[in-house]
């Protein structure tokens, strides 16, 4: 089994991006709260969809 270092880096990036989008969009903690907008949901969905696609591709290749 090969090293999953890149997998963990990718997942960490997605978690960080999710936090940035959520906190930056909602103003949670530093300003008046506002709900997530459609473009914010899109910004959350893209990195996670890409990670899921890569995980499926790597699993089929036998990398993971």
| Overall mean confidence score, pLDDT | 79
Q: What's the number of structural domains?
A: 1
- Report the portion of residues in β strands: under 5%
Low-confidence stretches: none
Cα(first) to Cα(last) distance is 7 Å
User: What's the count of strands?
Assistant: 0
Pairing-aware structural class of the strands and helices? mainly alpha
Order of H and E elements? HH
- What's the overall geometry? elongated
How many individual helices? 2
Helical content (DSSP H or I, runs of 4+): over 70%
Largest sheet: none
Radius of gyration: 15 Å
Q: What is this structure, in a nutshell?
A:
Helices cover 72% and strands 0% of the residues. With 64 residues, the protein is mainly α. It starts with a helix and ends with a helix.
What does this structure look like?
The chain has 64 residues and is an all-alpha fold. The chain has one domain (5-61). It has two helices and no strands. It has helices spanning 5-26, 38-61. Helix 1 (5-26) runs antiparallel to helix 2. The mean pLDDT is 79.
């Amino acid at each position: 089994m090969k090293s999953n270092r890149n997998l963990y880096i990718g997942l960490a990036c997605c978690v960080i991006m999710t936090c940035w989008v959520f906190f930056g969009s909602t103003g949670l903690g530093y300003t008046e709260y506002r709900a997530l907008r459609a473009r914010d949901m899109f910004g959350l969905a893209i990195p996670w969809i890409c990670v899921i696609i890569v995980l499926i591709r790597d699993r089929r290749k036998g990398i993971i």
